[in-house]
């Protein structure tokens, strides 16, 4: 299991400029890839995947207009395309709305770096394209022996800088492997239906049914014994 550790940091002027350029390039690549995928789907009903957008990014970098994309680390740009792929997977799976374009003013300013794009050694974190490590405010130490697998740098609306380090949680042990697996399907009549045939009732529906039963039982108790009304009330119970 992964756990994120978030810290404040104070970039130098050069680091702040580099990160601001990276944020802008991440937003530009995400929006261009989103436009290309949307156009392909609307006009041709074609699903463009991550590999196709990665090839587009390579081509964009070779143009004079977008040559500045080469000035920043390529990893945050590729990660933006991966996040877009995840967004479309959720969209086509009807688990989320269609991805939206990132706004320069409203969208979160962030960039994600994987292990090939940063160095973490002796408590010092250095990102790609940077000569010096970030001045991180280590408000709490990382667990002993833990190293980040992903680093996300962001800046909030107030101008504060944050770095989030995604690490394996040493306090969580992996469960032993099981030889059998059970499929789970969410439904309308039941909360969950298992491949074993077992059905899990929705607690909300169960409470509603119990309340309805109690109400009909009270009505039955008030009916005169032997009457037609009592017979009809008994059928409802």
From TrEMBL:
<dbReference type="Pfam" id="PF01385">
    <property type="entry name" value="OrfB_IS605"/>
</dbReference>
<protein>
    <submittedName>
        <fullName>Probable transposase</fullName>
    </submittedName>
</protein>
<feature type="domain" description="Transposase putative helix-turn-helix">
    <location>
        <begin position="1"/>
        <end position="44"/>
    </location>
</feature>
<dbReference type="InterPro" id="IPR021027">
    <property type="entry name" value="Transposase_put_HTH"/>
</dbReference>
<dbReference type="Pfam" id="PF12323">
    <property type="entry name" value="HTH_OrfB_IS605"/>
</dbReference>
<dbReference type="InterPro" id="IPR001959">
    <property type="entry name" value="Transposase"/>
</dbReference>
<feature type="domain" description="Probable transposase IS891/IS1136/IS1341">
    <location>
        <begin position="175"/>
        <end position="237"/>
    </location>
</feature>
